[in-house]
Amino acid sequence: MPEEHKLSVIIPSYNEQDNISRTFHTIKEILDNAEIPFEIIFVDDGSTDLTYPHICELSKEYPEVKGLSFSRNFGKEAAIFAGLEAAEGACCTIMDCDLQHPATLLPDMYHLWQKGYEVVEGVKTSRGKENPLHTLCAKGFYKLISKATGIDMAQASDFKLMDRKAVDALLIMPERTPFFRALSSWVGFKSTTIPFEVQERAIGSSKWSIWSLTKYAVQNITSFSGVPMQFVTLMGWIMLIASFALGIQSLYKYFSGTALEGFTTVILLQLIIGSVLMISLGIIGHYISRIYNEIKARPRYIISKRCGC
Ligand code: UDP
Ligand code: MG
User: What percent helix, strand, coil does the chain show, rounded to 5?
Assistant: First the structure.
């Protein structure tokens, strides 16, 4: 049973050995000062460094620390869901292990929850320091996904506090590849936002490469929306209109006796139709592979070790 006032802080951690202890002590100090009862769940997402041993050491010393360790790297979304499943608090918050989400806001979020808000969303006022290409890609991604999902995601982040009701609603979703950031808005409930500035990562480096971000973007757009498939239909219509125009031109040439020209047009048409078909097949294929993965119904993650719980 969830303890009545307890806050569960869930921290996905992947190769964060130098951050674990610092993050824990920062959060503990803030929450102790605010007299908020809490537990911290570190989810080690298959780290290859000493992240998990560090979590275990902490959990031996402090009863409020729990640790889960995945059998391999399953990704941040899986880690968030594993944490939510293990949480016992009456409300849960998700934070990054590198303290880029300011822990100083936790008491404010908690007080908003006490006032009756069931979802408190952290909203980025600035993206912190990152390379310009990254910012550009992130902007493009959020534009697309906001359009596709109908939820304004431009400033959304994983930093949020959710009431037990919202957490339970999330946990019954059977999706294999959930997109936490959007699902937590999708479930509804009485929500409010709290602005925060993304802090700079103090130790270690970001786990995202451009390639992994692209994969993340494609996966999340398609997990939340079928709009890319409508592109296939749209391209079909565009090609149909073009074919009318070209058809009329060809017939005109045929009847006026000048029909032998036009090899360039034929080649261009072959190329255009070929590529449109390939892209369309690719988009449909992607959705089929998503269906295939969902149907296999494999677990979202596999836990190999636990400590403190
Ligand atoms: N993370 C994770 N699994 C991964 C990649 C990242 O659990 O496969 C965690 C990471 O330890 C951190 C959070 O997700 O707590 C955000 O990661 P990072 O700081 O690398 O991302 P950024 O802040 O650059 O978006
Ligand atoms: Mg970070």
Answer: 50, 15, 30
Residue pLDDT, tens place only, 192-214: 888 888 877 767 677 677 787 77
Using DSSP bridges, classify how beta strands 303-307 and 191-197 pair: parallel, antiparallel or unpaired: unpaired
Ligand 1: does its nearest atom lie under 6 Å from the Cβ of 97? yes
For residue 157 and ligand 1, the question of a CB distance below 6 A is answered with no
- Its pTM stands at 0.76
Residues in the chain, overall count: 309
Task: Classify residue 21 by burial, with Cβ atoms within 10 Å: 0-12, 13-18, 19+.
Answer: middle
Q: Are 154 and 146 in contact (CB under 8 A)?
A: yes
20 lines ligand 1 (CB under 6 A): no
Ligand 1 neighbourhood includes 124 CB (under 6 angstroms):
no
Task: State the distance from the centre of ligand 2 to the C-alpha of 32, rounded, in angstroms.
Answer: 25
Helix axes 210-224, 227-255, angle to 10 degrees: 90
Q: What percent of the chain has pLDDT over 90?
A: 24
Q: What is the mean pLDDT of the chain?
A: 84
Give the environment of ion ligand 2: residues with CB less than 5 A: 96, 98, 100, 201
* Closest of 56, 47, 52, 42 to residue 10, by C-alpha: 42
Nearest atom in ligand 1 to 207's CA: 20
Q: Cβ neighbours of residue 150 under 8 Å, at least 6 residues apart?
A: none
Question: For the segment 15-34, what is each residue's pLDDT rounded down to a tens digit?
Answer: 888 889 889 999 999 998 88
